[in-house]
Fold Ribosomal protein/NADH dehydrogenase domain-containing protein.
Amino acid sequence: MSTRRLERVVLGTPTPLLTIEKLQIFAKDSNKVANDFTTYFLPTLRYWNPKLEFMTQPPPKDQQKERLRIVHSEASGGGEHDVNLSLYGYGHQLMQRILDIDTQKNLIREKK
C-alpha cells in the first residue's frame, strides 16, 4: 500500500470523541507540532465532532510552556487536562495522545 493511500485511510478513519468538548492550544505561530496538528488532524476531528470547540492563542506571559488544554464535558465528569507540546515532535503524536486521554476518561466514566 502506498504511503499516500495509507495516509488517506488514517485521516479518513472515524474519530468520535466521547468525553472531550473543547481543545485549546496555547502556542506561538512557529510551533511545528501545533501547526501540523491543526493542518492535518483538526479537520478530521471537526468533521466527526461538529460540536467540538477549538481555539488557539499565544501562551500567557506568565506561562512560557506551550500546551494543549483538553476540556472534558460535564457528562463525563468535567475537568481539564494540560498536555505539554514540547514533549511531542510531530502532530500525529499529539493526536494519539488526545485519543488516549479521551479513551481513558471514557473508561473511568463507564466504571462509575
About this structure: The chain has a mean pLDDT of 88. The chain has three helices and four strands. The CA atoms of residues 6 and 40 lie 14 Å apart.
